[in-house]
Design brief:
By secondary structure, this protein is an alpha+beta fold. It contains 2 helices and 5 strands. The chain has a domain of 77 residues: RRM (RNA recognition motif) domain (Alpha-Beta Plaits), CATH 3.30.70.
Length: 114
């Protein structure tokens, strides 16, 4: 059950966040479990810039994470039911290559003629 991020922190995923909820609201909810307002993320959709309805909350220890999940999972927060669970591990980022098209395609375009 222990998915550690760094320095003993555990990352929790909160689903079902209402649109108008701000970071201080979530921080207040997780304060009894060591939730730090500086360590809460409310991701946005890249295209529409709207909030996705999820939050990532970092808590300081596995014990605090377990307590938060048990106390807050399937509860109602600002008129919406939320679920709280351990966040999945992030896959490692693949290095980007900037030396041509992927797969070794035809190469760069010829210069334009005006």
């Amino acid at each position: 059950m222990e998915r550690q991020v760094g320095h003993g922190e555990i990352r929790l995923l909160v689903r079902g966040i209402a649109r108008g909820v701000a970071t201080p609201d979530i921080a207040e909810l997780f304060r009894p479990y060591g939730g730090d307002p500086e360590r809460i993320a409310l991701p946005r959709d890249r295209r529409t810039r709207r909030r996705k309805g999820i939050a990532y909350v970092f808590v300081p220890s596995p014990h605090a994470a377990r307590a938060a999940v048990e106390a807050l999972n399937n509860t109602v927060f600002q008129e919406k039911q939320i679920t709280v669970e351990l966040a999945a591990e992030r896959p490692p980022k693949r290095p980007r290559r900037f030396n041509g098209p992927p797969g070794g395609g035809p190469g760069p375009r010829p210069p334009r003629r005006f």
